[in-house]
User: Fold this.
Amino acid sequence: MKSFLIADDHAVVRHGMSLIISEMFKDAYVHQTGSLPEVLEILKIKVVDLLLLDVTFPEGNSLNIVREAKMIQPSLKILVFSAYEEEQYAVRFMNMGADGYLSKLSTSAEIKEAIRIIISQGRFVSQKVRDKIVDSFIKGSHINPIEKLSNKEMEISNLLVQGYGNLEISNMLNIQKSTVSTFKKRIFEKLNITNVVSLVEIFRSNQMG
Assistant:
């Protein structure tokens, strides 16, 4: 009997993924949560074979959860399932310990294939991610300007793109407002931009692939 944990703050997504898993594994036990902190709490008391993890939650970015989840359950497999295109996050998450990355734009057949591969082989890497890794190695430089950002800068960038202000972000991430301002300045410098509108444009262009 396989055990799954679907972590996404949208109930519709959790329900849809649960149906797909139930079609694949008749005796599967599927846990669900819409809360990022609850992911770790569930892993402390439930043995899970595969965690399907969204990138963003109201509480913040799930990037740092990956290592913590693996520390709790070393044999756990993690498939990041997100609306963000693979070019933005795939390699970053896999470097942190995730075992695969899949776009929410994928068809049900593609989702089933990714789950099947990660369960049977331990890792799922799409052709798009393979090509990206090869291109990065050959060119020896950043292909995507977003890759210049650190994990924390990426987290703050996503919140800025969603329309949150410095004070809101400082409260959400429990850091000083001045710290947010410092990160914001670094982000703008790395991406060679001067405002949030330009930041939004960069993220949108990358989501469109």
